[in-house]
Design goal:
There is one protein chain. The chain has about 350 residues and is an alpha/beta fold. The chain has twelve helices and eight strands. The protein has a six-stranded parallel β-sheet with strand order 3-2-1-5-4-6, sandwiched between helices. Strands 7-8 form a two-stranded antiparallel sheet. It is globular. The protein starts with about 30 loop residues before the first helix and ends with a helix.
Length: about 350
């Protein structure tokens, strides 16, 4: 006689609630799928693109060598070309305390500009004394992911600049400042705000300087150039202008050499910076400058992760598109000028 199986079945411990929205699968949007496909396409060709860029650079260097052009310092010279051995003691700080104001993409752009600044300083005959202050959070994590960052010849400070230098020596550079820099002094510390905000936080660096009672100023761009856009420049452009000025002691030459073309700047006499450069005797140095830019770009392509770009030219595009910090610098050599600055900061 067959017996009916009366074995009790195990109860359902986690019944599915059909009305629970958490069980529904969220499909990516068309925009997300498009970005994903674009990234996958770049990952598939990135090695080939990098190889092509390296070969192009090698061919260009070879052509310049054949013409007898100066292609910049070699590796042996770069190893000995340190801040410690530099005759230039001008101190420049990049303030990296703006993590909370930037998205991940902005941080990627910031680190890209830091790489450009460091590369320019490293190749200078007499490098500036470069400090990265307030180094922490997302920016530090991003820099740590760069292969040779730990070997950079820069002063890395977790502390904020006011904890590293005397307050009386600080000068915050801001294009919004009413003060104008006339020269650079060894006893001053010039601060460039490490902020990439696409002009969403206008005047933030000036506001910070005023709240802290720190002297502030802008570069004397208006004394030499007319511009069709705002005088806000990327971090690396501000740094390069300061570096160039220490080499030539001439603001006009520094602006002509480093002002990005997208700013559509032209000299007060009506001629364009390009025309002035062609007419100047300093054009012999231009090939070396071009090679230096190529080196910086390719160096960045090797070191910056794929997340911050989608092609070999994207790095340069990001740097040019990120108008970052308040460009301007000030030099206060006399006590009278220092007092005047103090009065302006309290307004």
């Amino acid at each position: 006689m067959e017996h009916e199986d009366v074995t009790p079945q195990s109860p359902i411990t986690n019944p599915i609630d059909l009305n629970d929205d958490s069980n529904t699968i969220i499909k990516p949007s068309k925009n997300q799928l498009k970005k994903q496909r674009k990234r996958e396409k770049w990952l598939a060709i990135k090695k080939e693109k990098r190889h092509e860029a390296k070969q192009k650079r090698k061919r260009r260097l070879a052509e310049l060598r054949e013409k007898g052009e100066d292609i910049g310092p070699n590796r042996k010279r770069l190893k000995s070309n340190t801040m410690k051995n530099s005759s230039c003691k001008i101190r420049v700080v990049i303030d990296l305390s703006f993590d909370d104001h930037m998205t991940e993409k902005d941080v990627n752009s910031l680190t890209c500009q830091l790489q450009h600044s460091y590369s320019a300083n490293r190749r200078a005959q007499n490098p500036l004394q470069l400090y990265l202050c307030g180094l922490s959070g997302k920016t530090k994590e991003r820099l740590d992911s760069i292969g040779d960052y730990k070997g950079w010849d820069v002063h890395k400070e977790i502390q904020h600049y006011e904890e590293v230098f005397p307050k009386s020596s600080l000068v915050y550079l801001s294009s919004e400042s009413p003060n104008v820099l006339t020269s650079l002094s060894d006893d001053k510390v010039y601060i460039i705000g490490g902020l990439v905000d696409h002009n969403k936080l206008k005047g933030l660096c000036l506001k910070i300087a005023e709240e802290k009672g720190i002297a502030h100023a802008q570069l004397p761009i208006s004394d030499y150039l007319n511009m069709k856009t705002r005088k806000v420049l990327a971090i690396n452009h501000v740094f390069s202008i300061l570096l160039r000025y220490t080499e030539s002691n001439d603001w006009k030459e520094a602006f002509l050499a480093e002002m990005p073309q997208r700013k559509q700047a032209y000299l007060k006499d009506g001629s364009s910076p390009e025309q002035e450069c062609h007419a100047s005797s300093s054009t012999e140095e231009k090939p070396a400058d071009i090679i230096q830019e190529d080196r910086i770009e390719n160096k960045g392509n090797e070191e910056i992760s794929d997340h911050s770009r989608e092609g070999t030219d994207i790095e340069k595009k990001e740097v040019d598109s990120c108008e970052c910090l308040k460009d301007n610098s000030i030099d206060i050599n006399s006590k009278t000028e220092v007092l005047e600055m103090g009065e302006n900061t309290t307004r």
